[in-house]
C-alpha cells in the first residue's frame, strides 16, 4: 500500500487508465439514453404492427436468466470459439444470459457448413458442441414472446455427495484449499452433502431467479490457537478482543473446533429487468472476470456470492468512431457488501484520536464495487480492463453516495491522514486480460493472460507489481480431434517488492481481510503470495459429456507462511448424460500437501464426489 505520493509520472498514467475505463461507460450511458429517446419518439413509425412479436423476442426487451458459471455451457462455447467458430464471444466477462449465448452462436451453423466443404478437421466436434448447445437453449427461443407473457421454469435439481479422507485445507487466504471454485461451500473430513434446486419466473422484461441448496458438512478440528495467532500476526489483525479477552472470530482463519454444518443457503437469488441490451439486477449473483478456466484474478466463484446491485451490458455495443478503433465492447458494474470481515476497533485511536493513527484495526464488512470493460477489435482478439475497490465498513467510513464517488474516481496516492480516516477511498486493485487466437496455428491454439495489481488502475502501468495467470489452450489434438489440452500458470508473488510477507496482493493496510467474502478469496484461489498452475486433458464423448484428468500445484512463499506450503493434486472427472435430462458427474482428487506450520510431514487427502442432476427442461407459460 503506497501512502505517499512522489511526484513521478505514475499519477499521469493512472489518470489516463482511469479515462480509458470511465470513457466507454459514459458513452454507453449516452448511447442508452439516445436509444430510449428514439424508442419513445419513433418506434411506432419504424416497426410495423405485424412485427411487434419479433420486437418483443429481442434480448433488448425480453428477460433471460444468467447461466451459472459452473455450467458446462462455458467450456463448450470456449472450445467452439477456440476452433474458429462463434467469434462474437467475450471470454473475459461471465456469466452470460441464455439469450446472449444464442446471439453468440448466430451464424455458427453456416460456419460449420462452410468448414465442412473444405474438409476442416474440427467439423465433427463443432457439430457436436453446437447440437448440444442448441438443444439446451432452444426452449428459450420458442414463442410465445408477448411482452405480457409469463414463464415459469425449473432449471435443475441436483444432489452431490462428497466424501473426504485426511485433513483437508479450507483457507484460501493463507495456507490453501483442498476444494476450489466451489462458492465457498462448507466441507470437512468425512461426509458432506449439497442438494439444491434452481429455477426462475419471468414476465416480459422482468425476471426472478433462485438457486438454493441444503448444505451439510462434518465437524472439524480446525487450526490450533497458536497457528491462528500466527496467521493473525501475519495479517496484522488483532487476535484477542480486548473487551472480552477472547480471540476474535475471524472468518479468514478457521480456528477450531469447527462445528458441523446443516444449513440452507441461496447460491444465487436475484431480481432483474432487461433494458436495451442491459440486465439491471439486484441480489446474489455469479460473476467471473477473466479468460481463464482455473480462476479469475479479479473475480471467480471461489467464495460465496455477494448481494449486489448490477448493471451488465450483455450484448456488444458499437459506438461510431470509437468502435472503429476498439471494436464493439461490453461493460459490467456491480456494487455490494462484503461479509465475514471482523470489526476490530483501534484502542490507540479510541484513547487518542489522531489523523496519523488508523481509526480501526480492521473495518467490519466493507463494501466493494467492480467495473470492467471488454473490447473486441478483431474476431481473434479480446482485451479488457477491470477495477475493484473495497471501501468503508463499520468503524472506518460510512457507505454513502459521497464516499462511493470518491472511491470510484480516486486515482492518486493516498496520504496517511486520509487513508486512516473516514475519507479513505479504499483498497484499489486494477486488472487487465487478453485472449488471442494465434495467427499461424489459428483454430488450434489460443493464448490468454489475466493480470491484476494493487494500488494501480492497471497492471500495464506497473507490471512488476502485478499478478499473472497466463494460459494456452489447444482446442483439439492432431489426429485425435476429441481431445483438448489446456495449461495455466499463476503467480501472485510479485517481483517488486521481492519480499512482502503476504501483505500486498489481495490485502490492504486498513482492509486487512482484503479480497474475501465469508472468509474465502473471491479472486484467484492461488492466494496472496503464491505460485502454481493447473493443467487439464479432456476427451469429449459428446458436446456435453467428457472424461478429464487434471493437475494442480500451489506453493506459498516462506516469507508469507512460516515454512511455506506446498500442495499438489491429481484429479479426474467423468460427466455422462442419461436420456438427455439426467447427468452423472463423478470426481476424484488425490492430494498431497506440506504445511509444517500446521501439521508435521506430508498430508494425504482424497476427495470423492458424485453429483446427480436432473435438467427437467419444463417451462410453463401463463
Explain how this protein is built.
There is one protein chain. This protein has helices at residues 10-46, 52-56, 73-82, 98-104, 108-117, 123-141, 225-235, 322-326, 347-351, 401-409, 416-419; strands at residues 93-94, 150-165, 170-171, 176-177, 190-203, 206-217, 261-275, 278-284, 288-289, 307-313, 329-337, 344-345, 360-362, 367-378, 381-391, 427-437, 445-454, 466-474, 483-491, 516-517, 520-521, 530-542, 545-556, 565-578, 582-595, 599-614, 618-621. By secondary structure, it is α+β, with helices and mostly antiparallel strands. Helix 3 crosses helix 6, helix 4 packs across helix 6 (123-141) and helix 5 runs antiparallel to helix 6. The relative contact order is 0.14. The model is unreliable at 1-56 (pLDDT under 50).
Shape: globular
**DSSP strand count:** 27
- Sheet-strand content, in percent, reads 35-45%
Q: What is the terminal separation in angstroms?
A: 55 Å
Tally of alpha and pi helices: 11
Structural classification: alpha+beta
Residues in helix, % = 10-25%
Rg (C-alpha, Å): 24 Å
Mean pLDDT: 88
> Strand count, sense and closure of the main sheet?
18 strands, antiparallel, barrel
Taking pLDDT < 50 over at least 5 consecutive residues as the criterion, the unreliable ranges are 1-56
